[in-house]
Amino acid sequence: MQSQLGLEDAGLEPMRVSAVHRSKMTAVSVDGQAKLSLPAAMTTADFAVGDWVLADPHSHQLSRRLDRHSLLQRQTVGARQLQLIAANVDTVFIVTSCNDDFNPARLERYLALTNEAGTGAVIVLTKVDQTLDAVKFQREAAALQRGLPVVSINGKSQDAISALAPWCGAGQTVALIGSSGVGKSTLLNTLAQKSEDEAQATGGIRADDAKGRHTTTSRSLHTIEGGAWVIDTPGMRTLHVSDLSAGLDELFAEITELAPDCRFRDCTHKHEPGCAVQSAVAAGTLDPARLARWSKLRDENEQNTPVVTGARGNKKMSVRGRRR
């Protein structure tokens, strides 16, 4: 970020956005928290928690945002623009618990989003102290993507700090994403060593369906002992995919690598003759459930991704079809 500063930035103070709301935004500097004021041409929708900005040290008037090295964003129902989740993230901790909340299809959506952003991903299995078969969850999680790190923890235990230390070094930023009630805020409180007065509110899950209650209502930036940063996010139970390419290819590498051997270049891997992917399913070397989930995500991504249409000089963005 330092390399982006020029002589024209002399006198401005670098700050990092710590919270973004509809009409206000706060940032943290070496002097603590500050409420930023935005120029008329800017809105809070242009910023994400984790952004680095330059501002006047006295008035806290924002001057400009520095270029991001990564950005997590997602499609939301009815919105024209993607929702910004977190910026300048090095690693995403995809948090899920060892109970009925564990959902491979949902975890694959988180992984696709993370892959597309170009950030590393770690599956963090929480509440291992409440299950008799943590190994089963570890095995299923590790099978979702090649080389995917999976860490099992009790989010309330100090052992969680050492287990996640490889991704929480000085200068690193991690983001916590996952459904409500899986233990993200509990984990944040442990990693950041927050006192009882400073701790993020936490909530349990319903016993009948393991679904959590929303306790975190906005994204926020926190420091960890040792110089790392953690971005906490509200629970995301629904996650639509759009504008994905490399993210899906990396997630479903076993399908991506077979596709060039299909007879037809535009093979959908559903019914075409000479399909190498279907041959792998028939041979038992490719999980048909994985293929079904790949097909669903690919179709949804194609349907939700805007395309440019219209004559030159009068182009507009539109989507291919209605979102199902």
**General shape:** globular
Structural class: alpha/beta
Low-pLDDT windows of residues: none
The DSSP helix count reads 8
Kindly estimate the percentage of residues that lie in beta strands according to DSSP: 15-25%
Largest sheet geometry: 6 strands, mixed
Averaged pLDDT: 86
Strand arrangement, largest sheet?
Answer: 10-9-8-11-13-12
DSSP strand tally: 15
Order of helices and strands: EEEEEEEEHEHEHEHEEHHHHEE
Question: What percentage of residues falls in helices of 4 or more residues?
Answer: 10-25%
Radius of gyration from the alpha-carbon trace, in angstroms: 22 Å
User: How far apart are the first and last residues' alpha carbons, in Å?
Assistant: 41 Å
* Quaternary structure: single chain
Compact overview of the structure:
This protein is an alpha/beta fold.
Describe this structure in words.
The chain has about 325 residues and is an alpha/beta fold. About 20% of the residues lie in helices and about 25% in strands. The chain has 8 helices and 15 strands. The strands form 4 sheets. It has a 6-stranded mixed sheet, sandwiched between helices. The chain has a 5-stranded antiparallel sheet with strand order 3-2-1-4-5, with no helix packed on it. β2 (about 25-30) and β3 (about 30-35) form a beta hairpin.
